[in-house]
Amino acid sequence: MHSDSDDELYDSRAGYDDVRDSQTLNLNEALTNLDAERAILACLMKEESAWDRLTGLIHESDFSDHKHRRIFSTMRLLAEQNKSLDPISVSGALRDSDLFGKVGGQSYLMEIEETIFDVKKLLDYKELVRVTAIRRELVRVSQHIQTIATHPQDRTVEELLTESETKVLKVGEQRDDEEVFDRLKDRVDDAVRYIEKLAKQGGQVPGLESGFERLDELTSGFRDNDLIIVAARPSMGKTALTLNICTNILLNAEKPLLFFSLEQDREQLIRRMLSAVAGVSHGKLDRGEGLTTQDWQQLESARLSLSKVDFFIVDRPNITLEDMKSQIRRINRELRDQKDANNKLAMVVVDYLQLVKPSRDRSSRVIELGEVSRGLKALAKEFKIPVVSVAQLNRNVENRENKRPRMADLRDSGEIEQDADLILFIYRDEEYDEHSAQKGKAEIIIGKHRNGPRGDLTLDFQTHLMKFSNEGDTAYRAPVEYSQDKLATTSDVDDDEDLDDGKPPF
Question: Which pTM value belongs to this model?
Answer without folding.
Answer: 0.65
